[in-house]
Amino acid sequence: MDRPAPAGLAAGAPADAALFTGLLVDLRDGRGTTVSDGVRQALGRPPRSFEQFATEAASTDCWA
Question: Buried b / exposed e across 15-53, counting CB within 10 Å, b at 16+?
Fold first, then answer.
């Protein structure tokens, strides 16, 4: 990420804070909104929602 620190970020802030702030600014500005087929390519199946994942995982007692 070679961009200036977002306005309002204090000088000397931890690197993690600067990175996280940059990610939030990117989300706010709409970067990364393009839908891709990365999940299908990587896992060989369509993506699913977190709700679907959690429901399936809970039914296996994996968190017991």
Answer: eeebeeebeeeeeeeeeeeeeeeeeeeeeeeeeeeeeee
